[in-house]
Amino acid sequence: MSNSKWLRMFKAVANSNIEVQRSEWHFIDSDNVLHYPMPQESQLMAERFQDGLFQPFEYKWIESIFIPSSFKPKAGVGYIIEQDTKGVLSAIEQAGQFATELTEAGLWIHAYKK
C-alpha cells in the first residue's frame, strides 16, 4: 500500500476517537513484529511517523497490522483489555477501500489482498 493510503487509514483511526492500545505490526522486509498503539494524528507525517514512539520508517514498508479484540496488558495477569475492532473497521471503511479482515481474534489491516 502506498504511503498516502496508509496515512489515510491512520488518520481515520485517529479521528475515530477509538483508543487502540496494542497492535502488532508486520513488515515487508523483516520477520520482526513490533507492538505499538495506533498513532495519534499529531504523530503522523506525509510519508512516515514523527520521531518518538515509532521507528523512523516509511508507511509503505508495513505489510500488515493486527489489532487484537482483547489482550492481557501483563502476562500471567487475569485483567483483560477489550478493543473496539468493529468500530475501527467502520472508521477505516468510511475512509476508503482497504484490505481488511475481521475475525473473532481481532482486525487485520493488510497492505495488499493476498
Description:
The protein has 114 residues and is of the alpha+beta class. It has a five-stranded antiparallel β-sheet with strand order 2-1-3-7-6, covered by helices on one side. It has a two-stranded antiparallel ribbon with strand order 4-5. The chain is globular.
SSE map:
Layout lengths: L2 H13 L7 E5 L2 E7 L25 E7 L1 E2 L9 E2 L2 H11 L3 E4 L3 E5 L4
Antiparallel strand pairs: 1-2, 1-3, 3-7, 4-5, 6-7
Helix pairs in contact: 1-2
Class from secondary-structure proportions: alpha+beta
Spatial extent as radius of gyration: 14 Å
**In which order are the strands of the major sheet placed?**
2-1-3-7-6
Q: How much strand?
A: 25-35%
The portion of residues assigned to helices is: 10-25%
Number of strands: 7
Shape: globular
Residue stretches low in confidence (pLDDT < 50, at least 5 long) are: none
Sheet of most strands: 5 strands, antiparallel
Q: What is the N-to-C succession of helices and strands? A: HEEEEEHEE
N- and C-termini, Cα separation: 12 Å
What's the total helix number?
A: 2
Mean pLDDT metric? 93
Which descriptors apply to this entry?
114 residues; alpha+beta; 5-stranded antiparallel sheet; 2 helices
Quick overview:
With 114 residues, this protein is α+β, with helices and mostly antiparallel strands. 21% of the residues lie in helices and 28% in strands. It has a five-stranded antiparallel beta sheet with strand order 2-1-3-7-6, with helices on one face. The chain has a two-stranded antiparallel sheet with strand order 4-5.
